[in-house]
Fold:
Amino acid sequence: MNFNPNEKKTLSQNKLIKAHLEAGKRLTALSALNEFGCFRLSGRLSELKDEGFPVDSIWITLDNGKRIKEYYMGNVHDWTWDRASNRSCI
Structure:
């Protein structure tokens, strides 16, 4: 049996992130760290996507010229399930 001592925390982070996105709010890696203590936003979002939750993203440019990803809840009706890769896609 593969025991993950952080599994409970991961599930809680997933719930918090999902609720945040469902409320129409957006997330970046830094905001997820500050708000939820989540160091691996991409991992949490991948798990939500695997469950069929529609997560979408855009590149944004910060005032200092750096580009980062900003994540938001996509349109559920735009998503389909790709059986070959077992992932949702637009």
User: Anything to note?
Assistant: The radius of gyration is 14 Å. The longest strand covers residues 55-61. The mean pLDDT is 80. The chain is about 40% helix and 20% strand.
